[in-house]
Amino acid sequence: MATEANGAEEGGLVFHPMDQFIVSPLFGDGAVNMFTITNVTLWMAITVLAVIGLLVVGTSRRAIVPSRAQSIAELAYGFIYKMVEDVTGKEGVKYFPYIMTLFMFIVLANFLGLIPMAFTTTSHIAVTAVLAMAVFLTVTVLGFVINGASFLSLFWVSSAPLALRPVLAIIEIISYFVRPVSHSIRLAGNMMAGHAVIKVFAGFAAIAAISPLSILAITAMYGLEVLVSFIQAYVFTILTCVYLKDALHPHH
Amino acid sequence: MATETTAAAGEGLATSPETAPGMPQLDFSTFGNQIFWLIVTLVVIYFILSRIALPRIAAVLAERQGTITNDLAKAEDLKKQAAEAEEAYEKALADARAEAQKIADQTREEIKGQVAEAQAKADAEIAAKTAESTKQIEEIRASALSNVEAVAKDTAAALVAALGVSANQGEIDKAVDDRIKG
Fold first, then answer.
1. Residue numbers in B near A123 (CB within 8 A)
2. Contact check, Cβ <8 Å, B30/A123
3. Spatial contact of A39 and B33, defined as CB atoms under 8 Å apart
4. Can you tell me the ipTM of this complex?
5. CB count, 10 Å around CB of A227?
6. Closest partner CB to B24 (pick from A2, A21, A121)
7. Between chains, do A101 and B19 touch, taking CB under 8 Å as contact?
8. Pick from A26, A20, A23, A28: which is nearest to A1 by CA?
9. Where is the composition biased (Low complexity) (chain B) (predicted)?
10. Which of B37, B53, B61 shows the shortest C-beta gap to A55?
11. What residue in B sits closest to A69 (Cα-Cα)?
C-alpha cells in the first residue's frame, strides 16, 4: 500500500495497521460522498457475486447427487434453516430468508476480507451497526405488532419474587437496549482486531531476524481468523434468531 | 492501545495526507457511503435469495427427499413381491407334492384292485377246472364199476360154461348182481 511505502521510505518500523480499513474512492481522489463508488462498493459487489456464485450458479444443475458447490449451498441452507426452526420454532420459519440474507452477507464478507489486499466491509462499525439496528428495530416492531402491549411482559419476569420484579425489569430493559450495541461491536471488533493483528505481525516481518517468526504468527493468526470469520457470522445469526424468538414468544 | 494507534495514525497523517486520522471506522464522513451501499447489497442479496436461490435449494432438497422416500417404498414393494413369489413357489411345490402323493396312492389302489381281480379270476378258473376234473373222475369211476360188473358176468358165464353146466344168462346175471351187492 502507498502508506506503507511511505513508512518504508522513512526507514525504521512504522505500523499502519488501521490503514487497511480506510474507505477511499475507487476512481479519482475526491471526497467520499454517499453515492461515491468506493472500495466498500467494490467488496460488497464481490460479496453479492459470491452469493450468486455459491447459491445460484452452484445449484444451477439442481442435481439429486450434488456437486461440491451445491453441497455447500445446501449445507448453508440446512444449517440456517435448522437454526431458525430450532430457536424460534415453526412460526419463525417465515423470517428465514431475512436471516439467511444476513448470514450469507456476513460470512462471505468475512471470508472475502481474508483475501490479502481485500477490504473487510464487516470490520466497519457503520456496517455492523446498521445490521444490528435493522435486527433490533425489526424485532422490536415485530414484537409489538404480534403481541401488542403484552410484548412488554418480556421485561416483567413473572417467575421472580414480586419485590424483585421492578429491579429485574430495569435490568432487562437496559440489557434489551444494549443488545444492538453488543451485537454490532462484537462483529466489527472481532474482524478489525484480527486484521489489525495480522498487519502488525506483517510490519514486524520487515526485520530479517524476526521475519520467520512473524510469518509463522501471520499463518497462525490467519487460521484463527478463518475460524473467527465463520464463528462471528454464526454468532450474529443465532443472536438474531434468539432476539426474534423473544419477539415471537415474549413470555418467559 | 487506542492512544498508541491514534499517535501512530497521527504521525502517519503528518507524513502522508492520505492516511485517515485515528480509526477509519470512526470517520463519520464515510458512514453515509457505507450505509448506502450496505443497504443496496442487502436488498440485492435478499432478492437473489428469496426469488431464486432459496426456492431452488428447497425444491432440490424436497426432490431428493421425495426420491429417497420413493426408492424406499419401491424397495419395500419389491421385497413384498419377492416374499409373495416365494410363498407362491412354496405353495406350488406343496401342491405338486400332494398331487404326486395322490397319484401314487391312486395308482397303488388301482394296481391292488387289478391284482385282486386277476387273483379272483384265477381262483374261479382253478375251482371250475377242479370241479370238472372231479366230475370226470367220478364218471371214470362209475364207468369202471359198470365195466367190472360186465366183466364179472361174462367171466361167470364162461366159468359156468366151462363147468359144463347149462344155465341161462338171466340166472347168472342175477347171481352176480347178488354177489356184488352182498
1. 25
2. no
3. no
4. 0.88
5. 11
6. A21
7. no
8. A20
9. 1-15
10. B53
11. B57
Judged by CB atoms closer than 8 Å, whether chains meet at A32 and B29 is answered as yes
Overall domain count for chain A:
1
- For A18-33, write each residue's pLDDT tens digit: 888 888 888 888 788 8
Total of domains in chain B: 1
**Domain with A27 in it:** 2-248
Residue type, B116: A
SS3 content of chain A, % helix, strand, coil (to 5): 75, 0, 25
- Residue B20: band (very low, low, confident or very high) from pLDDT cuts 50, 70, 90: very low
* Residue B18 sits at the chain A interface (C-beta within 8 Å): yes
Integer Rg of chain B from CA: 69
- B95 in contact with chain A, both atoms CB, cutoff 8 A: no
Residue B154 pLDDT grade (very low, low, confident, very high; cuts 50, 70, 90): confident
Give the pLDDT confidence of A147-203 residue by residue, as tens digits: 988 888 888 888 888 888 899 999 999 999 999 999 999 999 999 999 999 988 888
- 3-class secondary structure, A161: coil
Alpha carbon separation from B1 to A158, A218, B4, B9, B12 (Å, rounded): 44, 20, 5, 12, 16
Is B12 at the interface with chain A, CB within 8 A?
yes
A69 at the B interface (CB within 8 A)?
no
